[in-house]
Amino acid sequence: MSENSEEILNDTVVENDTVAEKDTAAENDSTAEYEVVSIPISDGTERDFAIMDTFEVEGQNYMAVSLIEEDEIQEGVYIYRYQNAEDGDVIVEKITAPAEYKKVSKFYECM
């Protein structure tokens, strides 16, 4: 499991998307079976992440995501807190507390 190295802006609202709806050149796209979120990072650009899993720890929702580059899911999993907004968007929050990240990471590893 990777450290949370992608700098994500706190309380970022992202819209759900699926790779299957995107215009991709590869017909056998390895990401086609995963839901994808585009998350703005600290430099202002957006990166696409495949949602590998969602889970709950102590009443909080979390998502495990992997970076997508050139229509391929990269190795490594990043974990973020999220909330579902009433309008269908997802609010992604960076986990800033080391103790929380450690607890959630351990939970995910044991799933």
What does this structure look like?
- The structure is a single chain.
- The protein is mostly beta strands and 111 residues long.
- 12% of the residues lie in helices and 42% in strands.
- It has 1 helix and 8 strands.
- Strands 1, 2, 3, 4, 5, 6, 7 and 8 form an 8-stranded antiparallel β-sheet that branches.
- The radius of gyration is 14 Å and the shape is globular.
- It starts with 11 loop residues before the first strand and ends with a helix.
- 23% of the residues are buried.
Q: Which bin fits the share of residues in helices?
A: 10-25%
Order of helices and strands: EEEEEEEEH
Uncertain runs are 1-28
C-alpha Rg, in Å?
14 Å
Total helical segments: 1
Strand content: 35-45%
Structural class: mainly beta
Can you count the beta strands? 8
Summarize model confidence as the mean pLDDT: 77
Terminal residue distance: 13 Å
Gross geometry: globular
Top keywords for this entry?
mainly beta; 8 strands; 111 residues; eight-stranded antiparallel sheet; disordered N terminus; 1 helix
Record the SSE blueprint.
Layout: E1 12-14, E2 16-18, E3 35-40, E4 46-57, E5 60-69, E6 72-73, E7 78-84, E8 90-93, H1 98-110
Antiparallel strand pairs: 1-8, 2-3, 3-4, 4-5, 5-6, 5-7, 7-8
